[in-house]
Design goal:
The complex is a heterodimer of chains A (389) and B (438).
Chain A lengths: L5 E5 L3 H12 L3 E6 L23 H6 L4 E4 L5 H12 L3 E4 L3 H6 L4 H7 L4 E6 L14 H7 L20 H24 L4 E5 H6 L5 H6 L15 E3 L2 E5 L4 E5 L5 H8 L11 H17 L3 H11 L3 E3 L3 H6 L1 H5 L3 E6 L3 E6 L21 H8 L4 H10 L2
Parallel strand pairs in A: 1-2, 1-4, 2-3, 4-5, 5-6
Antiparallel strand pairs in A: 7-8, 8-9, 9-10, 11-12
Helix pairs in contact in A: 1-7, 10-12, 15-16
Chain B lengths: L21 E4 L5 H11 L3 E6 L3 E2 L20 H6 L3 E5 L5 H12 L3 E4 L5 H4 L4 H7 L4 E4 L16 H8 L1 H4 L15 H23 L4 E3 L2 H6 L3 H8 L17 E5 L8 H4 L2 E5 L3 H10 L14 H6 L1 H12 L4 H11 L2 E4 L3 H5 L2 H5 L3 E4 L7 E4 L4 E2 L16 H8 L4 H9 L12 E2 L6
Parallel strand pairs in B: 1-2, 1-5, 2-4, 3-14, 5-6, 6-7
Antiparallel strand pairs in B: 8-9, 9-10, 11-12
Helix pairs in contact in B: 1-8
Chain lengths: 389, 438
């Protein structure tokens, strides 16, 4: 669907990496610029047993799938010039470099507006390009702390706990993707590229459920909603242990009939507005019902009765689930030097195909891209490539 | 005249990107409205459809004063995620109501819905039906799981989706159980995915001339956020829940701090997050803590050693952070070159210096309440600024929409009002869709 778009990824954050991966899957020509030591994600793993090299990092294999790798040592003028040519040839530049660095590379908005007027730039940073914290350092932990979502996650009697991975970055990736598409759509109407700036802190703070809009207006939070509440809000909105794991019973008033049908206790219908009953007998009843069943049996009841029950699925559950596979989520990738793996495919299902190739070896496409897009001959390519060796 | 009469096609550089794009928003609660919020922020004309007997459930939540005449128009939650939209309250259970919505759909560029799978078809608004009269239409569905049997029969809310996507399995304290998110995480993620999908489909439509149907499965989309763990698992790495720690940053954690009012750290529920990603930052941290001798401790020379002794380090760091507010601790660390941030609560976000400096919250007039704060659009297009309007009151734009979009006469509109097909206040038998229902 994006076959005629060229995307240049310049930076090392998850937000641009995941957005660019999706674009590659939908057909865009994505060129990832890497420093001589390789992208950060090549070093973070997780690694297969016995490996710790940049070609085997699972983060690299997943987030960089389907891209071309071009290594440039931007300390050298020839590499900077080549980068400028590559960027100018593109439709979209995705970057998380600080503004000052972009200026030094002559890839700032003012320069690009003159030299590549059809190029659109999506620039993302932890705190935004301006403001008193614009230059603050950030990691996946501090970003989700600054955006507010960490404050609500975890047990009330412990410190807040972060979710897996870089969720602030993953959320931002969808905004990066969307903003880039909006810019391309706009170019079709105006003939010119756009510059879009995103702050990961703002993106999170604008997605703070009900608690955000209430607090922003000075309203007191609902009891139990302003702070961490662990895994239980009340007896019908809670995790429960099953016979072999953890399940979720998350039931709203509209789901009461299906809950009671699954429990085989439709006789309790009239007691479902009795708060003392819900907090006592009903909690015990639900806990017992879950504890007597495996997680998959609880989910089978969800299917049978149309009830919002779920279970905590692990990687094996996901990889082995035929119903999930039938949704078309998986893509099989043959990764040279590593093996065959299945990866989550498109972020959403469309009429278009989504083909994701293997992640590139470091610098795998340096020579071809420099020739094709920077117009360099073999000697010049050797000079640029050599500057990074 | 409102943008409901905006000209279609063509644009100049000063117009928002989606000027002239018509969106019919049949979604409720959070995921769908979050998607269409982004489209409205980009200048699309978004008509939010409710019924006088079928309100968006969030109208009943976060209402500051329930004793006012129209509490259903004052919800903070509703106003935040439905700003800049137009409101139509029409009873789609009636033939006339269905006809109105069908005609609007036929003239729309985009339809967004988050009914349970199959409902949109039963309403006669399925993609194939609309496409037959409007081949350019883009229809986006946001189910919890998918439209496939048997899971299409299973309703799912945010925490269900977190569990079924695998992300809950990977999240939580070290040695502890899987952890639920503090927000209904699947919803905003699906909303962003929905907005992104619409925008990509609009790009594609410029070339193909036709629209398409898009399914944004909340579960599948969240799986894309743990793709590295799924790959690692297949390569033999067994991920374990590790709390706030990281294999490549140590120390890293969330530490207690003084309350802003001086409440001791042990009782303040105030926290600061910090990450040390290099040996130089380790030196900076211990100097900032006033404990430079720790840098010479042979037990902690590098990341692997510090990871192995993390509990001891946590004790030392907590002793220091407990003497400071989270703001002070983070500020000192940032000045020293260490990544750190207060763990900002929703109330603290409101007063955050950075967000304030960037105009994150804007004061917006409301018809029945004092001006309220809404978040500014988060995709900052250089040279463009989008004004914010409060979310529509129930049925606020009934007449405008029926007159301008469908060409109905004043007499016909009055007949529809008299028959209860359209309205501006809830009917006695009003139902609401449950929170986060899919």
């Amino acid at each position: 669907m994006l076959n005629d778009l060229r995307v240049v990824e310049l930076g090392d954050g998850i937000a641009i990496a995941l957005a660019a991966r999706a674009m590659a899957g939908f057909g865009a020509d994505v060129i990832k610029i890497e420093p001589p030591e390789g992208d950060r994600l090549r070093r973070v793993g997780p690694f297969p047993p016995g490996r710790a090299d940049g070609e085997a990092s699972a983060a690299h294999l997943y987030f960089h799938g389907g891209k071309s790798s071009v290594v440039l040592d931007l300390d050298h003028q020839a590499a900077r010039t080549a980068l400028q040519r590559i960027v100018h040839s593109g439709d979209i530049l995705l970057t998380d470099l600080p503004t000052a660095r972009r200026e030094r590379l002559r890839l700032d908005d003012a320069v690009l507006a003159g030299e590549a007027p059809r190029l659109s730039v999506v620039a993302v940073s932890p705190y935004g390009a301006d403001g008193p914290h614009a230059g603050y350092l950030a990691t996946e932990l501090t970003m989700i702390a600054a955006g507010g979502q960490l404050s609500l996650m975890g047990s009330p009697d412990r410190e807040p706990v972060k979710p897996y991975g870089d969720q602030a970055g993953c959320q931002a990736a969808l905004s990066v993707f969307g903003a880039a598409m909006a810019a391309i759509y706009r170019r079709g109407r105006t003939g010119r590229g756009s510059s879009v700036e995103l702050s990961i802190q703002e993106l999170q703070a604008s997605a703070m459920d009900m608690q955000g809009p209430m607090a922003y207006n000075g309203d007191p939070p609902y009891p139990g909603y302003g702070r961490r509440i662990g895994n239980t809000t009340h007896s019908l909105w809670s995790y429960y242990p099953s016979r072999d794991g953890q399940v979720g019973i998350f039931v709203n008033p509209a789901n009461i009939p299906s809950l009671l049908a699954a429990l085989g206790r439709s006789d309790l219908r009239d007691r479902m507005s009795d708060k003392a009953f819900l907090a006592g007998e009903m909690r015990d009843l639900v806990a017992r019902w879950c504890a007597e069943r495996t997680s998959k049996e609880v989910y089978a009841a969800a299917v049978e009765f149309g009830a919002p029950f779920s279970y905590v699925a692990g990687p094996d559950d996901l990889l082995e689930d035929p119903i999930l596979a039938a949704t078309g989520i998986w893509r099989t990738v043959e990764q040279p030097g590593v093996g065959v793996v299945r990866v989550p495919g498109p972020p959403f299902t469309t009429d278009a195909g989504f083909d994701i190739g293997p992640a590139p070896h470091l610098g795998q496409h340096t020579a071809t891209v420099l020739a094709r897009l920077a117009g360099l001959d073999e000697a010049a390519i050797r000079a640029v490539a050599g500057s990074g060796s | 005249m409102s943008s409901l009469a905006a000209q279609r096609g063509g644009a100049d550089a000063g117009e928002p990107p989606l000027t002239g794009i018509r969106v019919l928003d049949l979604s409720m609660i959070w995921a769908g409205p979050f998607a269409t919020k982004h489209l409205a922020d980009l200048g699309a004309e978004v008509i939010k459809v409710e019924g006088p007997s079928y309100l968006d459930h969030v109208r009943t939540l976060s209402v500051p004063d329930r004793n006012v005449a129209e509490p259903y128009n004052d919800s903070r939650y509703f106003n935040e995620y439905n700003r800049n939209k137009y409101g139509l309250a029409v009873d789609i259970r009636t033939d006339s109501g269905r006809d109105i919505v069908t005609r609007l759909a036929a003239g729309s560029d985009v339809i967004v819905e988050n009914f349970r799978p199959g409902v949109i078809e039963r309403l006669g608004l399925g993609y194939d039906t609309i496409r037959a009269v409007n081949p350019r239409v883009i229809m986006v569905s946001l189910p919890a799981y998918s439209g496939r049997e048997p899971e299409r029969r299973v309703p799912g809310y945010g925490p269900n989706v977190e569990q079924m996507s695998g992300i809950a399995h990977l999240s939580g304290y070290a040695g502890g159980p899987p952890q639920k998110f503090g927000i209904s995480y699947g919803d905003p993620v699906a909303g962003l995915g929905g907005a992104a999908a619409v925008l990509m489909a609009l790009v594609a439509r410029e070339r193909s001339g036709v629209g398409q149907r898009i399914e944004v499965s909340q579960r599948n989309l969240l799986m894309g956020f743990i793709g590295d763990a799924l790959v690692g698992h297949q390569l033999g790495h067994r991920a374990e829940r590790s709390g706030n720690r990281s294999p490549y940053a140590a120390p890293q954690g969330v530490y207690p701090s003084l309350g802003a009012d001086g409440t001791p750290a042990a009782r303040a529920d105030s926290w600061v997050a910090l990450s040390v990603t290099s040996d130089a930052q380790w030196l900076a941290l211990v100097k900032t803590m006033g404990r430079p001798e720790l840098a010479d401790d042979p037990r902690w020379p590098d990341v692997p050693a510090r990871l192995a002794a993390h509990d001891e380090l946590d004790h030392e760091i907590s002793a220091w952070t407990s003497t400071l507010t989270s703001l002070d601790a983070a500020e000192q660390l940032q000045r020293a070159g260490v990544a750190a941030s207060p763990v900002l609560t929703p109330a603290e976000l409101r007063d955050d210096l950075q967000l304030t400096a960037r105009g994150f919250l804007r004061m917006v007039a409301h018809a029945t309440m004092p001006p309220m704060k809404l978040t500014a659009p988060t995709w900052h297009f250089q040279g463009l600024d989008t004004e914010l309007r409060a979310a529509p009151r129930l049925g606020e734009h009934n007449q405008m929409i029926l007159r301008n979009r469908l060409g109905l006469s004043e007499q016909r509109i009055a007949e529809l009002e008299a028959a209860g097909v359209i309205g501006t206040s809830p009917t006695p038998a009003t139902r609401t869709r449950s929170r986060h229902a899919q």
